[in-house]
Amino acid sequence: MVAAPRRRPRPIALAGLRGFEAAARHLSFTLAAAELHLTQSSVSRQIAALERQIGKPLFVRRTRALELTPAGERLHAAVRGALVEIDRTVAQLRGTGAAPRVTIATYASFASLWLGPRLAAFQRDHPGIDIRIDAADQFVDLERSDVDVDVAIRLTRTPAGDATLLEEEANAALSPRLLAALPGGLRTPQALGALPLIEPDDTLPSAHFTNFDAWCDANGLAPFSPPARLFFTYIDQSVQAAARGQGAAIVRTPFLDELVASGDLVVPFPQLRMRTGYRYSLLLNRDRADLPHVAAFRDWLAAEFRRGPVRRT
User: Of 4, 71, 188, 299, which has the maximum CB count within 10 A?
Assistant: First the structure.
């Protein structure tokens, strides 16, 4: 007698799992739909079908609010891990034969003034690892499933992410050519007020912590009344203007130390550094942080911050 085949557990359709995972993560059908480029009603129908197949509600639908049920919490924990592993495996299969790549999201000024010039050293020590820099100056949520970023470097007012790389400081700096052209040099900090001042755009959130008024206040000096002020939106623009001799600027670390080491800027009053209240924070994509090429970049980045400025030979 042939034994009857064992019945397989009742399957569920898998099409709605991504919609469910996104809705569970955002606790919003609308945000899930926007992430997946679907309509809100499509996501809602997918989840309703999934609930029918499972036989239990996955969400508690309240007015303007969404909550996971205990069953929804269990399913989300399982689905999220499974989708991450599937996506990682597919990415590896698609990239078979291609070099591993580290994608870094950071600020344009940091990329051009600090990170970019150092990358040749990283690739010399780690041949075969490609680097992609996303310098769009936009907040990137590394927890979103559709974000292809491994590492983010951000300026924050409070500790954030996985590590603090640097507590930012700033000081007044100018071109050595401009300093040499001043009759008698700069005998006192107040003498800087006779120069054109290069300032951050006063519409920026950080401007009031990193301009000459803040520097004067931190060091007990009266505010300056310069002959002119030159405002820039981006840090690299301010730094380049100062290096060209267009005036004095409040330059922030780590750029300050780099430009002094290279001879492009001088700091006439090194004892008058001030803390800006900002810090460089490192954030890692949890789903890819342990990949060998990402870990190699993370460790190299931390070592570069510890090492300090790169000096010209």
Answer: 71
Per the CB < 8 A criterion, the answer to whether 303 and 297 are in contact is no
Percent of the chain with pLDDT over 90: 54
Across the range 79-102, mean pLDDT stands at 75
Look at phi and psi of residue 97 and say left if phi exceeds 0, alpha if psi is from -120 to 50, else beta: left
**Region of poorest pLDDT, from 12-21, 140-149, 265-274:** 140-149
Go through the domains of the chain in sequence order and give each one's CATH number.
17-94 (1.10.10.10), 99-313 (3.40.190.290)
Q: How far apart are CA 261 and CA 268, in angstroms?
A: 14
Q: Look up tokens 């041949």; give the residue.
A: 127
- pTM score, whole prediction: 0.67
Q: Tell which residue, 142, 119, 83, has the closest CA to residue 284.
A: 142
Radius of gyration of the chain (CA): 27
